[in-house]
Each structure stands twice: as structure tokens, then as C-alpha cells.
Amino acid sequence: MARNVVISGGGTGIGLAAARAFAADGDRVLLIGRRAEMLQRADVPGALTYAADLSDPHAVRGVARYVADEFGTVDVLVNSAGGAGHLEPEAEVHDPLGAVAHTWTVNFRLNVLTAALLTEALRDRLASPGGRLLFLSSIAAYRGSGSGAYAASKAALHPYAFDLARQLGPRGITVNVVAPGYVEDTGFFGDTMDPARRDRLVAETSTGRAGTPGDIAQTLHWLASPGARHITAQVIQVNGGAERGH
Hints:
Rossmann fold, 7 strands
């Protein structure tokens, strides 16, 4: 039976790969993202699209109304929207503390606020029983990200997911987090990835390769399957062993 699947950040990278995985099962997919042109180019069979800034409560209310009209019930919600601010406009901040405040605010807006607002707007529409709520974290939540801001924002999703797992469990809804390592072909790093850094990240894995959007998408797809119905409040790391070191 076809399910209703909502995916934020669905126009590119991991979100797009996940959308294709669900659509291949015949599920009805709604792609949400800030850039309408990216959503329109996604080319996911049968997918609906909705452009919105998910850090804006007013915009999220619009998403909720659209979901109510088109889907009614949400079987799977994947919170894939996020980033480290590489694609954001440069801030004209000259005060060092002002720059810190900007970096941390951007990262929590992109990674925490977007997920929290969309989840809270749609939580009452999650299928009961059988709903699946999924979040995208990062290996950075375990070992830092250099600046600390991105890592902290991803780590913040973990306790939020655990709280939701306890709250929604009685309704037969599972809540889990997937934490990827270095994944290529996502646009996440913008123009900041140099060959030496890439080689170092790949060398940290035990598998000797970078992750792909499909690696993460298939994990999300499995967590949303009936076979994972007794898995909840977990953080699944998909990083080729890099978090353990090599």
C-alpha cells in the first residue's frame, strides 16, 4: 500500500536520494526545500513539491495546510534539510563575538529550528500506528566539526528525537536519527572541499571510500520499513567506521 512521505531538503543530496527510494516503492512523496527551482529539477516520479523556508513559522504553517489538503495523514517524515552555512550569504560582521553569534545562529536555524518546526507542525498527522519520524544528524555530533557550531546543532537533534520517541511511542510511531559521515555529491561543502581534505576523510574510514547519498537513503528507507518497527530512539551511524578511527 502506498504511503505518504514528506521529505525536507528533498531537492538535493541525501533528501533527493531518499525521495527516489520511497518513490520507487510507489509511495507518494512531497519534497520541501527553500529553492523552488531545485525542487522542480528533482525529477522524482509522481512527487509533489513545496518551496518554503522551514525556519519561518509562517512558512511552516503553509506547509502544514498543504500537507493536510494533499495527504491528510503522514506515514513517513524525513527531516533532511540542513547545512553548515556554506551556501548562506556572507555575513558583514566585523566584531569577533558578533561573528560567533552569527555562525551559531545560522547553524541552529538550519539544522534544529527547521526540523523542530516541521515536526511539531506535522506530528499530529503522523500515522497512528505505523508512523515513522526520521532526522539527519552527522558524525560531527560525536567528534566535533572544527567550529563546534554545526556539530552542536546536529547533536541537539538527538535528545529531541529521544523525547519524541517516548511521547509518540504509545501511538505506534518510531523516531530515529541517522548520522552520516563524509558523503560526496551532496553540495553540502559548496566550494570548500579540497582534495587533501577529501583524502583525509576517506582515509578515516574502514571501507576506504566516501559515503554516497544512496547509502544514507537506503538506511532511512529501512528505518521506515515494517522490518524496523521495534527500533526507536536510536542514532544509526553510517560512516564506514570513520567515527571509530582507522
